[in-house]
Design goal:
Blueprint (H helix, E strand, L loop, with lengths): L3 E3 L7 H9 L6 H10 L11 E8 L5 E13 L6 H11 L7 E7 L10 E2 L5 H21 L4 E8 L3 H9 L3 E4 L3 E5 L5 H6 L3 H10 L7 E6 L4 H19 L12 H9 L3 E8 L7 E7 L3 E9 L9 H15 L4 E6 L2 H6 L3 E2 L2 E7 L2
Parallel strand pairs: 4-6, 12-13
Antiparallel strand pairs: 1-2, 2-3, 3-4, 3-5, 6-15, 7-15, 8-13, 8-14, 9-10, 10-11, 11-12
Helix pairs in contact: 2-9, 8-9
Length: 359
């Protein structure tokens, strides 16, 4: 069983990657090119990622296994309760890298979804052997990268055989943070609202319909470098408003280059909301446009309008209906804001992760 390894998505055939994995979320070949351009050596330690792609070929060259990992700096409290992060962030005011570790993790810190493709037509024993071979190679690579832990993440939480297999290999299972998605099964807003629960219909009319006429929305994509730089500056500031208030999933702030890349990349688009006659945006949302899914990944908000003018709910509405207008099968609404997303009909797909410390 030969596991091929590559250091860039450019070394893999993009059609094959997207058929196997890229259609699932924002980690299409195009989405990964953006990450590779942004998170590279030479910048701050938290933005210095190493990418590694794994492939096992089957008959006629078709893949039996595909996945990718990143070596990156994680905050040790990333998945701990928010009150722990609040205390640690006070200490990081003097030492920004206090209680951080290099982790070799499946996927990346800016992607969500099941990052492992295993050919389901294979016998169960062969799939188990493939997973074990992958883990063996990953552990070797993680130690070469001096990682303190290996994390396998975002698996469907429904496979006791896999649980037992990874436990034998030294991995401890935990639930992944809740992430929500909304299947697109309606044709217009009336049909969508009719499909909500009665209580949620009332909430939608009260908090969304009431303020809808106060907002306008533009879609920005594939900008020239000068315009992208201006958009990125505005987006980054709005994003920091959210980042400074959210410690439930405590990561390092994204660099401005991410937002510039989104504005220039045709595989991404930015939803820009404005309030009434105000010229400055009050919200911006960076979304990856996949073949089957619409994946909003980063949001920035003007908190003046979140409570009195229902800004966050307007953002959810725009994400959902943009995905519907583009003909996507699902809108991936991501982590956080669980209560409000459920009011919009989004559902939690239970996911799990496995971690093994090294050294």
């Amino acid at each position: 069983m030969r596991i091929e390894q590559y250091d860039t998505i450019e070394s893999l055939e993009p059609g094959e990657w997207d058929r196997a994995l890229g259609h699932r979320s924002s980690f299409s070949a195009a989405g990964l090119r953006l990450l590779e351009r942004t998170f590279r050596p030479g910048g701050a330690p938290e933005n210095d990622w190493t990418f590694r792609y794994y492939r096992v070929a089957g008959e006629a060259g078709r893949p039996k296994l595909l996945t990718f990992f990143t070596r990156a700096l994680w905050k040790d409290d990333m998945l701990l309760p928010e009150e722990v992060s609040i205390d640690l962030e006070r200490q990081r005011a003097d030492d920004p890298y206090f209680m951080t570790s290099v982790v070799y993790g499946m996927g990346s810190l800016l992607t969500e979804g099941e990052h492992l493709y295993l050919d389901e037509s294979l016998p169960a024993g062969e799939r188990a052997a493939l997973l074990e071979a992958l883990v063996s190679r990953v552990l070797q690579d993680a130690m070469e990268h001096k990682a303190r832990a290996v994390v396998l993440r975002d698996f469907a939480d429904d496979d006791g055989v896999r649980d037992a297999q990874l436990a034998r290999l030294g991995f401890e299972k935990s639930l992944a943070p809740e992430s929500l998605a909304l299947p697109v099964t309606w044709r217009d807003e009336g049909e969508y609202v009719a499909g909500l629960r009665s209580r949620h219909r009332r909430e939608y009319r009260k908090h969304v319909v009431t303020h809808a006429s106060d907002y306008s929305v533009d879609v920005v994509s594939a900008c020239d470098p000068d315009r992208a730089a201006k958009i990125a500056s505005l987006f980054h500031q709005l994003y920091l408003n959210v980042k400074e208030r959210r410690l439930d999933l405590n990561t390092f702030p994204l660099p401005p280059e991410v937002f510039r890349g989104m504005a220039m990349d045709p595989a991404w688009e930015i939803l820009v909301l404005r309030y009434r006659d105000e010229e400055a945006p009050c919200a911006m949302i960076g979304c990856c446009v996949g073949e089957e899914v619409y994946a909003p990944m980063v949001i920035g908000l003007d908190y003046r309008l979140v409570k009195p003018a229902g800004l966050y709910r307007q953002c959810l509405k725009q994400m959902i209906f943009r995905g519907q207008r583009l003909g996507k099968e699902r809108v991936l609404l991501g982590m956080g804001g669980v209560t409000q997303k459920r009011q919009f009909g989004a559902m939690v797909d239970p996911r799990c992760m496995y971690a093994r410390p090294l050294g």
